[in-house]
Write a structure and sequence with these properties.
There is one protein chain. The protein has 356 residues and is mainly alpha-helical. Helix content is 78%, strand content 3%. A hairpin with a 2-residue loop joins strand 1 and strand 2. Helix 5 runs parallel beside helix 8. The chain has one domain: Rhodopsin 7-helix transmembrane proteins (Rhopdopsin 7-helix transmembrane proteins, Up-down Bundle). Pfam families: 7tm_1. It is a multi-pass membrane protein. Receptor for RNL3/relaxin-3. Binding of the ligand inhibit cAMP accumulation.
Length: 356
């Protein structure tokens, strides 16, 4: 779930037993100021770590990568682009959270930031799904003589995935707006027919961005595990195991980071459909637990590059090479400074000797 759920969660946990319209909602103080402050700080930390981590991924793949980019690395590059764009929105949400979800940036920025947030959520899960399918297909087919053709098709797949993410974001771009609720300006989605279509929107998002992709990913990895057990991976088996392990950890991190948020969102969908009643437990979860799950979901954007750098051998090697280059340059600078210092001292001694 994207961060616009914060504002929606704020409305949810302050509403009456049945959802009717925004005008019927009584907005009072919600949540803990300390919690909001901690979440804002966490957003800032995630933003900094995510920017640095994803820039490192760009550097490793595009600058120091061999001329030929593998299929998995091409998807990793696209995933890094989505995470990079996503973390750029976090400073806005940090301010919004610190101000008790009161949006200070205007209607245009509300549409832009919400759209970028949601689009990159979709793109991220789409590329994670594509990575798991590609991993299975690479091992199953073992086609090494069609790299040029496959590379071209991979690029077209990426174009299709970005297009699907853009189309899925259309409702957010159309219906996101700054709405006055009891004197507070909230950046949220406002559909013409109220809570019913908002519930439908969240339900389709849960299906498209979580349940369906996780089903595809699970099937792909089950097939991959069966394939690895059946076949004797004599050629480069260690390499394949390492790559499969790294991709699996990336997918699991996505699942564990986003699942709590989707679960609580689904609870909200049931409340909006009047399938379950609003009660005290719902209020407590949305006021105190839901913001933490959103924060956990956003942390996934800085976890991905860390996983790439720590779990994949080529990234670790390039990181060590980068550290080695920096260390070598530092030693050379120190050596040069020492020589200059000795030269200056020698000149001083000579001048003093001449003076005497």
């Amino acid at each position: 779930m994207p961060v616009e759920e914060y504002a929606l969660g704020k409305i949810d946990c302050k509403s009456s037993l049945r959802f009717k319209s925004l005008e019927d909602i009584d907005v009072t103080a919600d949540g803990s100021p300390v919690l909001r402050c901690l979440i804002s700080i966490t957003y800032s930390v995630v933003c900094v770590v995510g920017l640095i981590g994803n820039l490192l991924v760009f550097f490793f793949i595009r600058v120091r990568q061999e001329r030929r980019t593998s299929k998995i690395n091409f998807f990793i590059l696209n995933l890094a682009v989505t995470d990079f764009q996503f973390v750029l929105t976090l400073p806005f949400w940090a301010v919004d959270t610190a101000l008790d979800f009161s949006w200070p940036f205007g209607d245009a920025m509300c549409k832009i930031i919400l759209s970028v947030t949601v689009m990159n959520m979709y793109a991220s899960v789409f590329f994670l799904t594509a990575m798991s399918i590609t991993r299975y297909w690479s091992v199953a087919s073992a086609l090494k003589d069609r790299s040029r053709k496959t590379s071209c098709s991979i690029r077209w797949v990426s174009v299709v995935l970005w297009s699907l993410a853009t189309v899925a974001t259309a409702p957010t771009s159309i219906f996101s707006t700054v709405t006055n609720v009891a004197g507070e300006k909230l950046c949220l989605l406002r559909f013409p027919d109220g809570q019913y279509w908002l519930a439908v929107y969240h339900l389709q998002k849960i299906l498209i961005a979580f349940i369906l992709p996780m089903a595809i990913v699970s099937i792909s990895y089950l097939l991959l595990l069966r394939l690895i057990r059946q076949r004797s991976m004599k050629n480069n088996s260690k390499r394949r195991t390492q790559v499969t392990k790294s991709v699996t950890i990336v997918v699991l991190s996505f699942f564990l980071c986003w699942m709590p948020n989707h679960a609580i969102t689904f609870w909200g969908v049931l409340v909006k459909f009047n399938a379950v009643y609003w009660d005290k437990s719902y209020y407590i979860v949305h006021t105190y637990v839901f913001p933490v799950t959103v924060c956990l979901a956003h942390a996934n954007s800085c976890l991905n590059p860390l996983i790439y750098c720590l779990m994949r051998k080529e990234f670790r090697k390039k990181l060590k090479d980068l550290e080695h280059i920096k260390t070598t340059r530092s030693l050379l600078d120190l050596n040069l400074k020492a020589k200059l210092c000795f030269q200056e001292k020698g000149i001083l001694h000579k001048s003093e000797a001449r003076a005497t």
